[in-house]
């Protein structure tokens, strides 16, 4: 069959039909499970109850402000990571002596859980917005550095040697060979790490927050408002999905030759 052949393209209609099925099937199963008598509604509220909670949150509890605040924190932490990780990863991926100096340390730190840094961040940065951004930064930065370095290392050595044979300087090799060749992978790395940044939101909003989606989820937990917990989780997922699709669109626009059908 055509669809089962590796990497064979499918029509846009087929793709979006399967995407809708992949999203709606779990929703239908959740709804059926919530309607059954197997699970207490306190622990598993149905989609209508969660949707009603979203409407109440929007009307009474300033949902849009919570979304804006959380999005700002995530984007700030992720952007700060990218600002430092991109050049650092470029250095590690281009020069072996920089790799030997910095990659083992980065590998070591990336295994440390970001939540463990919360007490230190509160001591060093305080409990204002900077602390929340710092947690998201810690959660994404070290992974991003290593991914960027790997993207740069994937540039074929033959391209670098060809440029050097033609008399290109080190700076020209980096600017005109390594960076252009690595750009598609780098944009994908930024997309993936944006997803990671969102996963650290609830941890970040443990730090003396009084607003935001993560804070609302934690507050709802204290009062056993399971429907609001579900609403917050689903909203984070929807926002993340929207941002991910924007990244994918940007990738298609920036590198259209990668999407040509053969």
SSE layout:
Elements: H1 12-35, H2 47-60, H3 63-94, H4 96-110, H5 118-124, H6 129-153, H7 157-165, H8 170-199, H9 201-204, H10 213-222, H11 226-254
Helix pairs in contact: 2-11, 3-4, 3-6, 3-8, 4-6, 6-8, 7-8, 8-11, 10-11
Question: How far is the first residue's CA from the last residue's CA?
Answer: 18 Å
CATH class: Mainly Alpha
β-strand amount: under 5%
Mean pLDDT equals 89
Number of domains: 1
Main sheet attributes: strand count, strand direction, barrel closure: none
Low-confidence runs:
none
Radius of gyration: 22 Å
**Which class best fits the helix and strand makeup?**
mainly alpha
Proportion of helical residues: over 70%
Counted by DSSP, the helix tally is 11
CATH topology descriptor: MetI-like fold
H and E order: HHHHHHHHHHH
Instruction: Indicate the overall shape.
Output: globular
The CATH architecture: Orthogonal Bundle
CATH superfamily: MetI-like
Give a count of the beta strands, DSSP E runs of length 2 or more.
Answer: 0
Report on this model:
With 262 residues, the chain is mostly helical. It has a single domain, classed as MetI-like fold (Orthogonal Bundle). Helices cover 76% and strands 0% of the residues. The protein contains 11 helices and no strands. The radius of gyration is 22 Å and the shape is globular. The model has no long low-confidence stretch (mean pLDDT 89).
Give descriptors for this structure.
MetI-like fold, 262 residues, 0% strand, mainly alpha
Summarize the model shown.
By secondary structure, the protein is an all-alpha fold.
């Amino acid at each position: 069959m055509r669809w089962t052949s590796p990497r064979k393209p499918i029509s846009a209609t087929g793709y979006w039909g399967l995407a809708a099925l992949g999203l709606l099937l779990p929703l239908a199963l959740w709804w059926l499970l919530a309607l059954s008598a197997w699970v207490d509604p306190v622990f598993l509220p149905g989609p209508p109850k969660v949707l009603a909670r979203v409407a109440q949150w929007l009307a009474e509890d300033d949902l849009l402000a919570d979304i804006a605040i959380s999005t700002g924190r995530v984007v700030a932490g992720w952007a700060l990571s990218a600002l430092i990780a991109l050049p650092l990863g470029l250095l590690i991926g281009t020069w072996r002596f920089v790799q030997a100096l910095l990659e083992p340390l980065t590998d070591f730190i990336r295994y440390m859980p970001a939540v463990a840094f919360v007490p230190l961040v509160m001591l060093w940065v305080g409990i204002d917005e900077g602390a929340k951004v710092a947690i998201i930064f810690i959660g994404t930065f070290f992974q991003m550095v290593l991914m960027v370095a790997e993207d740069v290392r994937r540039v074929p050595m033959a391209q670098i040697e060809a440029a050097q044979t033609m008399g290109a300087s080190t700076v020209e090799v980096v600017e005109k060979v390594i960076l252009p060749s690595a750009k598609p992978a780098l944009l994908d790395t930024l997309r993936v790490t944006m997803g990671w940044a969102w996963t650290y939101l609830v941890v970040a909003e443990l730090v003396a927050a009084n607003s935001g989606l993560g804070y609302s989820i934690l507050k709802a937990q204290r009062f056993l408002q399971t429907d609001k917990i579900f609403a917050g989780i689903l909203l984070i997922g929807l926002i993340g999905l929207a941002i991910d699709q924007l990244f994918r669109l940007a990738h298609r626009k920036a590198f259209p030759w990668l999407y040509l059908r053969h």
